[in-house]
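Reading group handout, session on sequence-to-structure problems. Before we discuss, look at one worked example. The prompt was deliberately terse, the way you'd type it at a terminal:

> structure WDR64 protein

The input record follows.
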Amino acid sequence: ALELMDFKNALEQFQNLVEKMIIQKKKESSGLYTKDDDEIDYDKFYTTTRMLFGPAIKDHNVQTFFRKIMSNLDERPEWLEIFGCFTAESDGMPSQVKESMIFLVSEKQQITHSVVKRKDVIKSIVKVPLLDFTITASQKGVITIFKNQRKSFYSCSFFFYQDTAWITGCDFLPQLKYVAAVTESSVLIWDYKSKESKNKCFVIKPMKNCLLCVSTVTVSDHLPKDTVLMGDDKGYVYLLTMTSDHFIMKQYKSEKESQYSVLDSETFNIVKRKLHNDWVGKVKYISALKRFGSCSTDNINSFVLDDIKRLEDNLPVKEFSVPKGVNAFTYCGKAKVIVTGG
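And the output record:
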């Protein structure tokens, strides 16, 4: 209750600061304002806002908020935007069904476990709700699983040997219970449950082009196989199907001391089709639509959304053209919309 009272007091002071600044700027534009010690410039606005809310706000959000006020004094931004939260409300929405728009920063949980070394970066983060864990993959080959149990995180990591190839994406194989990752030249499969180090990793290669992204095709047939979508730097989208037999047979044939088993890509069922004329930035199977999506910086074939069978034939695909292409997309089932970002 005390924290809530403090927040309400800080919010009231902040809103008074904004009102005072707007009045000052309006007087300046009409030539009626005389500068004094109470003048509010950006430095004073930043210092006062930081004093009121502390580390809960970010510098770029303060800059954006200030810039919005200066660009249009008659249309004031919502106070939520100082925290980086943006809302759009419908006039007809009943007040009792509106969701709370206050984010309690103190309730966020930060994972302090370091999974990458200097000059390495996280390239992919995947949430696996069914098993309640999160997978991260770093550019230089560290794949980590964070398991959330009893309100605390613990992790297991694996470092993949790579011949100068960087990891570009990862996903989880729900039927085989493996982690799949793609590099510039191969597909990596990690059996994170294995107790014996010799059976932990499989490397599928060679791959003709540079792989840039990967996504699992989720189906409900419960067969011991998984299919993944992949995109490369030449505009191709791949469909790779893996069964348990590919890995079980190789485990018996692998060398006793080897931690990596190399699998020939020719032994897998891989189909591909050129859908874009530039890099494929993201691929995703949207279960609710029973369609796959792929996007590219290609100006003509920027975004493709169609049945996955189109990868196996030459029939026309549903594609959309966006100036300067599409870098990312997502689907919202509740609103039944697809949003793209260029």
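Points for discussion. First: The longest helix spans residues 2-30. Second: Residues 89-99 have pLDDT under 50 and may be disordered.
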